[in-house]
Design a protein that fits this description.
The protein is α+β, with helices and mostly antiparallel strands. The chain folds into 2 domains: 140 residues, Fructose-1,6-Bisphosphatase, Chain A, domain 1; 107 residues, D-Maltodextrin-Binding Protein, domain 2. 31% of the residues lie in helices and 25% in strands. The chain is built from 7 helices and 15 strands. The strands form 4 sheets. A 7-stranded mixed sheet has the order 3-4-5-6-7-8-9, with helices on both faces. Strand 5 and strand 6 form a beta hairpin. Helix 1 packs antiparallel against helix 2 and helix 5 packs parallel to helix 6. It is globular.
Length: 275
């Protein structure tokens, strides 16, 4: 786990959390199946804020998740990309953090790289996490202290500290800054879903991933635990741990990688900080 973050000694094998894990798994799988059923159909879409796309599938999947989770855990808080923020969540010990469809832009366009992402956070730190990409059939599941699985098989981030740019994903300007002497860096092809990009660090398909500034709790909370439990680390470029369920849910630039590679990347940006 990332240092500096208060990790409570909650036993994720306790009966209530075994229940919550089963509830999370069943709900995220059902939500993914609903999203898959609506995928590549004629959907009503609109834009929220300046440029964030939304589809009726986002709302339908959000409603399903909210109905399942809040009915079963009425004492928990709720934070979702597609729900009005309720400040009462700040007083809750445990909070569900939800992105019903992470990668909506790609989802609407008919691309495969989207997923359902849900985390249960306790005391600002993820406790349980599930990320499901139905089209590519990837179901990532993690519980604090119990490791990460993909489709039921344990996974680990890649060891070592070498930097193979073809296996580093994220905004190209960030990847390029890892080698200031080169102008021809070819990074990993774009993965539209940030949660899925980070999860692919956890199972070793890519070595490292960046999240540009302006990611939100719902984009990263589940993937954070999935990476950490796969012997990886995910922090700011300064090494600060990520805290969740705060009044401000927006984060700066983040990086995820196996522990040795993560340390090398942090050392590079400490020597060559971003402007």
């Amino acid at each position: 786990m990332a240092s500096g973050r208060q990790i409570h000694s909650t036993d994720t094998r306790s009966a209530p959390l075994v229940r919550d894990r089963a509830l999370l798994t069943e709900t995220v799988r059902e939500a993914g199946e609903l999203a898959r059923a609506m995928f590549s159909t004629s959907l009503r879409t609109w834009t929220k804020g300046v440029s964030s796309p939304v589809s009726e599938a986002d709302i339908a999947v959000n409603d399903l998740i909210e109905n399942r989770l809040r009915a079963a855990t009425p004492d928990y808080g709720w934070l979702s990309e597609e729900s009005a923020d309720d400040p009462s969540r700040l007083a809750k010990q445990r909070v569900w953090i939800v992105d019903p469809i992470d990668g909506t832009r790609g989802y609407i366009a008919g691309h495969d790289d989207w997923c359902v992402s849900v985390a249960l956070v306790e005391g600002a730190v993820p406790l349980l996490a599930a990320v499901f990409a139905p089209v590519t059939d990837e179901f990532f599941l993690a519980a604090r202290g119990q490791g990460t699985t993909c489709n039921g098989t344990p996974v680990l981030a890649t060891p070592g500290d070498d930097l193979d740019f073809s296996k580093i994903a994220g905004p190209k300007p960030l990847v390029e800054k890892l080698d200031r002497s080169r102008k021809d860096v070819v990074s990993h092809p774009r993965i539209g879903s940030l949660a899925l990009r980070l999860c692919r660090v956890a199972d070793g398909r890519i070595d490292a991933a960046f999240a540009g500034a302006q990611s939100r709790d719902w984009d990263i909370a589940a993937a954070d635990l999935i990476v950490q439990e796969a012997n990886g680390r995910m922090t700011s470029l300064g090494g600060e741990p990520i805290l969740y369920n705060r009044a401000e849910v927006t984060h700066g630039v983040l990086v995820a990688a196996g522990d040795l590679r993560h340390a090398r990347i942090l050392a590079h940006f400490q020597k060559h900080p971003l402007p």
